[in-house]
Amino acid sequence: MSPRLKLRVSPAAESAVRSGHPWVYGDSLREQNRPGSLGEYAVIYDRQDRFLAIGLFDPDSPLRVRILHVGKPVVLDENWWRQHLRITLHRREGLFDERTNGYRCIYGESDGWPGLVLDRYAGTYVMKLYTGAWLSRLPELISLIEAELHPEQLILRLSRNMQVVAKVGGWTDGKPLISRDIGALRSTVVFEETGIRFEAEVVQGQKTGFFLDQRENRQFIESVAKGAEVLNAFSFSGGFSLYAARGGAISVTDLDISAHALESAQRNVALNRHIPEIAACRFEQIQCDAFEWLARGPRREFEVVILDPPSLARRELERAGAVEAYGRLAMSGIQRVRPGGLLFAASCSAHVSEAEFFEGVRQAARDSGRLFREIKTVGHPADHPVRFAEAGYLKGIYLRF
């Protein structure tokens, strides 16, 4: 049996780990007693040879160790993992009403589960992995989740960067890990969010099947939509649109380049026709490049304009171009807002900071020459907590013209 993998790191990394940062980079390692294997526990000792932390080791990643625990020595046995999950789930208690059964149960590093996300969609749970370090522990995870949550289905989703290594072990993106319906995998499930019903494409959809992180912004749009004509650019499956409709919007226009997304939005409308305000709203779907339509499309204005594009900077090298693109997009959106109307602009680009994004939208508003008032800026909802800088990606700003 190999001796325990023991590491020592640079003083800067030691300090970062003590302060709660969940990653140790490969270039921070100073001592290592033996080569480590993917997914094994790595114990980090400080300069006085005292226990500092324990985490998951990945020999091929720049993020060499993903921290699980810092402080006093612990044994990561079955009981520790059970308690770890229960504590994580307890953080969500009281966040949602009885009409909501779709939300994030585990948000990676911020919940002490580095590189792992678990989302709930009614009786279906979707676990997404962003590091191969979890693969050898999947049987334990499956057993743990089954015992604590009793899912009807548990679906595995894998980030693109790890699908090759996962396949070696027989794990594939969209694989059912638990299924109560023998031989009947449900790739699309229906869940509720504050009483509105949505489809989640849990096997092949974006993220884990739906954009749960915008729940609170959808609720705010509902609160200001009464009597409004609403434009939902980059509408995806129509989340903002249905909230606006329930809030009393006269009409909602969806813009999306994907026919599949617009068809999903139509199905979501059909799921909610029993809600009088949604039944009364006029829905319009336009398949187009939303950037192009906003800048050069038909001359139409709206009381509420929603700009929620996909990430415009997936890498640091794309950051400067994304900042500029957000500014142009905001200018195009502002030109679609009627006097007295509202603009909501959002960014999910982690490489673009809050300061850069907010200032870009504000500058576009100033350059428009129109008087405006900033209502508020927003970030992550409570089920997507940000406990270290790199976990923050979502930001939004509301302006009234």
Strand order of the largest sheet: 16-15-14-17-18-20-19
Shape: globular
Q: Could you name the CATH class of the largest domain?
A: Alpha Beta
Cα(first) to Cα(last) distance is 68 Å
In the CATH hierarchy, what is the architecture of the largest domain at level 2?
3-Layer(aba) Sandwich
How many individual helices?
11
Tell me the helix content: 25-40%
Count of domains: 3
CATH topology of the largest domain: Rossmann fold
In percent, how much strand structure appears in the residues? Answer: 25-35%
Report on the structure:
The structure is a single chain. With 401 residues, the protein is an alpha/beta fold. The chain folds into three domains: 5-70, PUA domain (Archaeosine Trna-guanine Transglycosylase, Chain: A, domain 4); 78-189, Transcription Regulator spoIIAA (2-Layer Sandwich), CATH 3.30.750.80; 211-400, Vaccinia Virus protein VP39 (Rossmann fold), CATH 3.40.50.150. Helices cover 28% and strands 30% of the residues. It is built from eleven helices and 20 strands. A seven-stranded mixed beta sheet has the order 16-15-14-17-18-20-19, sandwiched between helices. Helix 2 (78-90) crosses helix 3 (138-149) and helix 5 runs parallel beside helix 6. The longest helix is centred in the C-terminal third of the chain and has 16 residues, at 319-334. The chain is globular. It starts with a strand and ends with a strand. The mean pLDDT is 96.
